Amino acid sequence: MTITIFHNPACGTSRNTLAMIRNSGVEPTVVEYLKTPPTKARLQELLAAMGTGPRPLLREKGTPYDELDLANGKWTDDELLDFMLAHPILINRPVVETPLGTRLCRPSELVLDLLPNAQQAAFTKEDGEAVVNDKGERV
């Protein structure tokens, strides 16, 4: 089984998502997309699998979103993809791809819907929020 996470280790949501994948007994393929950005074709594949265009995947906070005027409706999907490739920080994270689907996992517990295996132990997010109990069930 292949699970891929497009991950930013500086992001708590991304770290929590990765930890929940590992808590299901799977070691995913981890793509640190800021170091190794996806190609345009790969980004298009992910968006198609998610059933969305690029706008919902654009990150605003801590990015050049405002500076580039990306809220402006004049930009085509293709142009938005080009911005995301030129500035990978604009790609929101974490995006997780599993045999059950592909999605942006914000909040991190959304990943539980994509994991073929149950959680193997209790899980608490970095901020102290309990997500999974000791029976592997959502709290």
Structure description:
This protein has 139 residues and is α+β, with helices and mostly antiparallel strands. The chain has a domain at 1-33 and 93-139: Glutaredoxin (3-Layer(aba) Sandwich), CATH 3.40.30.10. It has three helices and six strands, in the order E-H-E-H-H-E-E-E-E. The strands form two sheets. Strands 2-1-3-4 form a four-stranded mixed β-sheet. It has a two-stranded antiparallel sheet with strand order 5-6. The two termini are 26 Å apart. The mean pLDDT is 97.
Strand composition percent = 15-25%
Mean pLDDT across residues: 97
Order of helices and strands: EHEHHEEEE
User: What CATH architecture of the domain at 1-33 and 93-139 do you see?
Assistant: 3-Layer(aba) Sandwich
Q: CATH superfamily of the domain at 1-33 and 93-139, called what?
A: Glutaredoxin
Q: Which CATH C-level class of the domain at 1-33 and 93-139 is it?
A: Alpha Beta
Distance between the termini: 26 Å
The number of helical elements comes to: 3
Count of beta strands: 6
Strand-pairing-aware structural class: alpha+beta
- Alpha carbon gyration radius: 16 Å
Largest sheet: 4 strands, mixed
CATH topology of the domain at 1-33 and 93-139: Glutaredoxin
Q: Please estimate the helix content.
A: 10-25%
Strands across the major sheet, in which order? 2-1-3-4
Contiguous uncertain segments of 5+ residues: none
Shape: elongated
